[in-house]
Fold these 3 entries.
Entry 1:
Amino acid sequence: MSVSYDRFIKPFLMKISEYRFLSLPESDRYDTVDQYLKSALNDIKRVCKYDFISTASDKRREFNIDVNTSDLSEIIDIVSDGMVLKWMQPYVNQQELLEAALNTKDYTKHSEAELLYRIGNDYTVKKKDYIQRIREYSYDCGDLGDLHI
């Protein structure tokens, strides 16, 4: 059995509102979201009992791996959250650069600076939740035999 990249990408796209993806050529769209996918999978590779990284086939856009259906839905949910963080990262970087150039009087209720500030705060909260979900997954699925105590 194999797992399609799209099994991860569809939930990711449902969690964001990025209309520019629709205007991109299909190959560019795949390149972008596939990078988000691989980056998020790298985040959980140490705690995931399935090896998605080495079983990836970019040509067929699938993972050549057998995954229990109940495990797959949890992994997809965690990885799609990670993909959202990867998608948000450029906006957060932009906010940090803007903060360095501006002072507090530039932050009005409807300014771009305020929007970017809120994106940065949202990113911080989502990242904390994402890391906690990875920890919980590792507690549920981890193998204590791998620990070197």
Entry 2:
Amino acid sequence: MTFNFDLPVNREKTNSVKFDGRQQYFGTTDVSPLWVADMDFAVPECITQALQERLNHPVFGYSLYPESLYQATIDWFARRHQWRIEREWILMAPGVVPSLFAAVQAFAQEGEGVIVQSPVYFPFFSAVTTNRRKLLNNPLREYNGRYEIDFEHLEHCAQQGARLLMLCTPHNPVGRVWSVAELNRVLELARRYDLTILSDDIHCDLIYPGNTHTMLGRLAQPGDKIVTTIAPNKTFNIPGLGLSALVIPDKAQRDAMKREFEKLHVGNSNPFSIAAYEAAYSGGDEWLDALMPYLQTTRDFVADFIAQQIPGIRTVKPEATYLMWLDCRELGLSDTALRDFFIKECKLGLSPGAVFGEGGSGFMRMNIGTRLDVVKAALEQIKNNIS
């Protein structure tokens, strides 16, 4: 099969956050939206077919999760990630972000510590603070644009009464794929200090050649307390459908998460989310295998163009995701002025790095999950307004 990722798809007037939310978020519609993390590519045909087949039935009542959905999940992670998941480990969930909030409630009491590693996807912070847990920040260390975990400081955080570590893997926004050695050190600290780990692996399929993503659960030993969030949403561009899953080998921890969902009577999903989820994991391999070279070409073009033609901005090729982390500190602008520069001068809507917490000031996150010609035009706009 062939896939045309250069095909324009008009997303305006579809209630798209990315496009129809520009006025609200940027104060103008006159920006090219390269911010919120969804892509502008049409989803795989297997998904649209599954949705159409379900639509052909005229009743949309309460829906169960079929066993075939669980099997599709198990098969996907076996063939794509060499991770053997048991059926009873899987708990369906209403999205990754609700799962972050539920995990904080399940595994830390009010006032107890939860570790996050900034700069990181901002709901990691709000999941802690909204639930009145103690936020323990373990900032990543940057070396020439490449980020590493500060393990000495991570241990210090663990000693401050932490109960939960929320690990973003692969990391959004810095694009790191953590090595097996790094993941094993995280596990060793978790064992030493009796930490539960919430491993957010929603970007696990979006890995560039030369890098290997290892699911933390693959490295687990009996007694390790790991809750893994998984979903086809980022991989296949269906985040609006919301459905995700948790993989929790430990029954006590699985029951703890179930209780949090039951408190809000969260459990059922809509029939379209179920159909799309199963179709993605059952039939999306060829589409994903075609997508990644396209994203790689775009990623490499962005990195090379910035290095060669845009003074004052630096970036390092991400090892995963379709998000570029732009270091704009040499421009000498405040975060407010930097955001305004991209909006008013460059006519671009990017995500300000400051929203990702400590270490994000002076950065902008650029979503390259769109047509290459759109990305090229955006870079020209930046170049013309800096030089």
Entry 3:
Amino acid sequence: MNPEESKRVEATEEKTSPPETSAQEASQKTAPKERSKSRPVTVYLGVFFAVVFLLLVMSFFMQQRSHQALEDLNESMSASQDLTALQMDKQRLEFELQKTKEDLAQAEESLEKLEKQAQALECLRQMEAASRTSYTSLKTLVEQFEESELVDYLPTEPVVEGADAPADVYRNLYAMIY
């Protein structure tokens, strides 16, 4: 075969075999193109999922922080309500204390009055006993009684039913001396 024929044979072989080789070459050429086309999509999806994941994590932490803030607010509100209740209790107790102090003052005043009344009645008893024994001792007791100002504490009503009132008994004794 001469060189020209060999070129023709090769050319015909190439023409008959090119579909096989061109399919291989085409698959080799398209494979990198498909890879190069699918690679940006994969990167895009990866970045997309990473961003979504970061947003979810940020959302979770923001929700936790707002939940904590709500709990703090609830605690603050309950503390405020407790404080208000304590203030109300304090005011109620102060009112009760004031009322108790007033009641105590009245009770002390009544006790003092009753003690003076008891002293006046005791002096009257001593004057009655002295009226049976000695005129001079009765006069001395009446003068002391007048100076002590216990006269105002003698009851004007009878202590025992059917008896004279202690104030009336004292006036009778005073009238006997003066």
